[in-house]
TrEMBL record:
Residues 4-87 form the Toprim domain. PROSITE patterns: TOPRIM. Keywords: Cytoplasm, Endonuclease, Hydrolase, Magnesium, Metal-binding, Nuclease, Ribosome biogenesis, RNA-binding, rRNA processing, rRNA-binding. It catalyses: Endonucleolytic cleavage of RNA, removing 21 and 42 nucleotides, respectively, from the 5'- and 3'-termini of a 5S-rRNA precursor. NCBIfam families: 5S_RNA_mat_M5. One of its GO terms (molecular function) is ribonuclease M5 activity. Its EC number is 3.1.26.8. This is Ribonuclease M5. It holds the Pfam family DUF4093.
Amino acid sequence: MRIEEIIVVEGKDDTRRIQEVVDADTIETIGSAINEDILEQIEHAQETRGVIIFTDPDFSGEKIRKTIMEVVPDAQHAFLSRQLAAPKKRGNSLGVEHASDEAILEALEKVVTPVIESDDYQEIARQTLIEYGLIAGARAKERREKLGDELRIGYTNSKQLTKRLKMFRITEKELIEAMHNINDLPSEKSEESI
C-alpha cells in the first residue's frame, strides 16, 4: 500500500516499522523537542502532499501532536491504542515501532482530520462528561482510554478531552454510542435523559 501523505513520526524506529508495512515517506520529529526546522518541513509537506501525524500514544506523543497542530491545524491523524503500541519487552516505552502490521494498517486506513472552527457544532457539556465518568471518578482514565480507542481520537487527559471531542466534531449521540460500545454506560445516564 502506497501512502500519498508524508507520515510524521517520532524517530528512526517508527520510520523503519512503518516502511516495513507500507510504502511511505516520513518526517521524524526526533522526540518531543521538535525544532523550528522540522516544523517548517512539516508545514511544507502539508502544502505539497499532506501529512499524517502518527505519534506514540503517550505524553510525549501527545505533546508532539499538539505542537504540530499549532502550525498545521488541518493535518490528518492516525492513532494507535496504548494496548496496540505496547512493547514486547518489559521496561520499553509505548511506541508505533511495537505495533503489529495489522494495527499500523488499520490506523492508517482510519485516518481522521480535525475540523477547523464551525458554528454548527454543539459542544458536549462538561456535566455530560462527568456523568459518564470520563472526567472524574475512580476509573475516569480507563474510560477515556477506551473512549479514545473507540472514537479513534487517541488518549486524552481530562483537560484535553473536551478540546479533542470538539476538534473531531464528536456529537453527543456519537459519545453515547461509543459509551454503549465499550460497555461502560453509567446506569444513571441514559439516552432518554438527553
